[in-house]
Amino acid sequence: MALSDRAGGPTPLVLSQLRALVRGFAAAVEGGAHRPVHDPAARWYTRLHHDPYVDVWLITWPRDTSTELHDHAGSLGALTVVRGSLTEHRWAYDGRGGGAIATRELPAGRGAAFPLGHVHDVVNTSHEPAVSVHAYSPPLTAMSYYAVDDAGSLRRTRTVLTDEPEPQSLQEALR
User: Fold this and answer.
1) Preceding amide of 165 cis, omega within 30
2) Which residues have C-beta within 8 Å of that of residue 157, sequence separation ≥ 6?
3) Does some domain include residue 175?
4) Are 161 and 141 a contacting pair, CB within 8 Å?
5) Would the pLDDT of 61 be above 80?
6) What is the DSSP secondary structure assignment for residue 106, as one 8-state letter?
């Protein structure tokens, strides 16, 4: 897929295009075109591509790191795991106004796509570092964070304006 192929509308690329895009960039990472940096204490990231329609990011994940439950505001998204494995905990709506957390494993070579309204927490639960490629269309402008309350409902806890996939954490903001 050429980056000039646009879907139009508020999300210029559609999920199938984002999936293809992250697979292509993941193959380039595997081929050595981009070098991930492994920080044992925190996720590391770098932008691989940016234009008005899409951002593509390379992210490394030390063991036991998590994004917290979040969405991507008005952006669609997709990811492909290049090395290691990630676990996605996502809010699965039940169609009756409620939902629950569903989990899926994403080993190397697998990926996921995120429609509007998708709320998830991506975690490296393995003993090895992981590497993934993420794309967002349009590029990120905000992320909202969520918690599941005692009644089992999803509640927004905060929204962060950001153009990066790893915005400053709440703990860092309070320091």
Assistant:
1) no
2) 145, 146, 147
3) no
4) yes
5) yes
6) E
Contact of 11 with 53, CB cutoff 8 Å = no
CATH code, 165: 2.60.120.10
Is 62 within the bounds of a domain? yes
Beta strands in 37-153 (DSSP E): 44-50, 55-61, 76-83, 85-93, 99-107, 111-114, 120-123, 130-137, 142-148
Q: Which amino acid is at 152?
A: G
Whole-structure pTM value: 0.89
Instruction: Please give the average per-residue pLDDT across 127-139, as a whole number.
Output: 96
Tell me the one-letter amino acid at 128.
E
Question: How much is the pLDDT for 1?
Answer: 46
Is there a domain that residue 124 lies in? yes
Task: From 80, 53, 61, select the one nearest 130 (Cα to Cα).
Answer: 61
Selection from 170, 90, 155, 149 nearest residue 123 by Cα: 90
Domain assignment present for residue 5? The answer is no
Q: How many domains does the chain have?
A: 1
Domain residue limits at 22? 18-169
111 three-state secondary structure: strand
CB atoms within 10 A of CB 132: 30
